[in-house]
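Our preliminary data section would be incomplete without showing what the modeling component actually yields. Below, a chain of 936 amino acids is followed by its predicted structure, encoded as tokens that our downstream tools consume directly.
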Amino acid sequence: MFYDHQQIEKKWQKYWEDNQTYKTSDSTDKPKFYVLDMFPYPSGAGLHVGHPLGYIASDIYARYKRHQGFNVLHPVGYDSFGLPAEQYAIQTGTHPAITTEQNITRYEEQLRKIGFSFDWSREVRTSDPSYYKWTQWIFIQLFHSWYNKSTDKAESIETLIQHFEEKGSEGLNANQNEELNFTAEEWKNASEIDKSAILLNYRLAYRAETTVNWCPALGTVLANDEIKDGKSERGGYPVFQKKMMQWSMRISAYSERLLQGLKTLDWPQPLKDSQEYWIGKSQGAQVRFATENGETIEVFTTRPDTIFGATFMVLAPENPLVQDLKTEEQATEIANYIEETSKKTERDRMADVKNVSGAFTGSYAINPFTGENIPVYISDYVLMGYGTGAVMAVPAHDERDHRFAKKFNLEIIKVVESDVDVQEESYDSKDSVCVNSDFLNGLNYKDAKSKIIAEIENRGIGHGTTNYRQRDAIFSRQRYWGEPVPIYYKEGMPYTLPNSALPLELPEVEKYLPTEDGDPPLGNAKTFAWDEANQKVVDTDLIDDKTVFPLELSTMPGWAGSSWYFLRYMDPNDDEVFAKKELTNYWGQVDLYIGGSEHATGHLLYSRFWNMFLKDRGYIEQNEPFQKLINQGMILGMSALIHRIDGTNKIVSKNLASEYQTQKIPVDISMLIGTTDEIDVEKLRVWRPEFNNAEFILEDGKLITEREVDKMSKRTYNVVNPDDICNEYGADGLRLYEMFLGPLEQSKPWNTQGLSGVYGFLKKFWNLYFDGDTFSVSDEEPTKEEYKILHTLIKKVNFDIENFSFNTSVSSFMIAVNELQKLKCNKRNILQPLAVIISPYAPHICEEVWNLLGNNASIEFEPFPKLDESYLIEDEIDYPVSFNGKMKFKIKLSADLGKGEVQKLMMENDEVKKFLGDKSVKNFIFVPKKIINVVI
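Predicted structure:
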């Protein structure tokens, strides 16, 4: 029977949509299972075949769980704010909302064509005001919260105000920007503005001067993961370090909890390691060094035991102390160095371990234990965001300090015993004892560290402490296409809008660039001011700073909306709350989360932070958002490259290229002829004007390209459109092939030719149900051999899906179908459960045969076939028979026979007699169901 995949797939996709087959119930009478894919950003290019890999895996698992009787939540939505749509708006004037809507329509069309079992009724978009209303609401909750270190959780700002009214700052144990000291009386007498300024020091969402990655060409601040090699990932524009007033999120308050929480999660270890490194917990001491001019430099060090070897100090170039410590003679050199450093991101500075640079401030500090004057430098290897932005440099025992000391000819003093010549290389180990260190001499690392910290505290120059590398997350972006921040300003102080004013919607603007005054694009809006008296947004020309006040002009970062979307799916249409408590309690954590590892220190950290905050404030019950996480690998493209002879417009075929100096140029793989490496020259001429008049040096009349495995990308023209694959091989073919390529977590190359194998399998599977062109399924009882094939498959697929070994399941399908085809099996009791087993992978074809078998309801909720191990018990065993350990032949024996019975039968066997001859048996070794060995 002809397998018409196009007709079958259109039919069932329409059926699923019309019947809302995958619409999830909130009924709590079934056990729940929550399967989620990382939020996709709807780019203009649409999907290529690499994108659906994780979606197919999660879809298989979701369908499998439905077959097991779970109430499965498997939603879809779009992280629809983003810089690409804004850049397109700047270039064309098209509103980002229009571009985004077009992109989403294209994405949805492609996703539906692949047959995903998403609950489309729960779709959310971060750029929809009904969604970002609640993103703004969460921001307001963060603004009105502080972190109480005594209770180790976020609390309402009202409890902090109550503490101030009763005790001032006395006894306060809070996460804060700086330590403040005031009495209850001083608090009560403070003005409203002064109180607001004090509270900003503690709020979880706060505004402060921060060093940021500023991209002048894009007119915005960029996150570290939006920058590559000192340039913006979008457009390749230069990025500079700049100090700006910015909104920040106090994620640092959660550093320890974020670390400890990792122990409870079933995540890939490399991903956990990335978060641990990013958070960067270290224990040591905070120490104050006096300077000649009266300033104090405070450092954090993990090796206070080496303080006697501190021979110079290094400050981060952006440390405010630099301006106080630089001398007149050094001012120009310092200014030039700071300017150069501003062109590097913190990530670049951390990664560059080879280059040594710096500048002398002209000032000296005093080592508190040696009494020596030690010079103070600045260098880009010290970061303002880690510790205090200053280090005591111990060149004998730190590699970077050592390189710095050698470059600037600074003193190197050994303070940890070793045979290493510290004048030539540093000795960084802790496995030794202190030397040249006065009262620490002879002590090991642990004892010396404890003793020096006690002495530092005794002298009143510091204290032992735990430090974290993780900085607070910058929350402002100078863009248009993002969530407006629900803040207005009165006398320079931020105030939140009332909940009744939410959502604060994006206003219309005439242009999407910053204003002439340098304000963000929202500064171009004509209606974007807050009328406090009438509680509404009004025209900006009404601002009088008495009753009408300016609104915040920055927007939220790209990660804001994606930090809580998993919660909104639980209750996506609620106007009263972001999600009802009974629903968040029922759905709880995401049970399976699939997405790329590139989000390790961005989205995954921010989501955990917001989840913990919402738990602290009593809005949800779960500690962590994502219990199990899998990072899918990448599907790689097969690029086609032509060779162009340097300095000419001559294109030479691959096997002749070695005779010339050439450069390789990627070309569109759609111009290849069939499945060959030959390119259609006439298509190439039309493709780009530069090739129209090119000269082609061919081999045997053909232009052969070079093929390379590469990341699938528009830039390398090696993108394969899933629509084309679905048209030719079917969505079921695409789904099976992507799983068949290899283990989910690994990267693997795409080869369209490989689809013919899985398509052939689908045709074989289809034809099991037909006799020629007639649907033919028998009610005859299957044989034991047929049951064995079925139950072997059930056992294998159960194991494979539970262990995410989807590729081996596809192999098992092929083996089972081949075996059933050989037996000419058309028994209902085999073919009906077979359709259920294969349906998570190939739902369209299985729905069709299920329907042909006389079932009116969808196959989706049919119970997964139960394994009956009795069918797997072997009746006969094919035993290998060895003599003195060398296998001579095989013999079939009943599986129930014991050693005595087997030995009797063997001694009567003609083959055995032939090998024995006149020799006697010294030993008879029998391992049931494994081997027979005769020792002679």
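The first helix runs from residue 5 to 19. The longest strand covers residues 205-215. Preliminary results of this kind motivate Aim 1 of the renewal.
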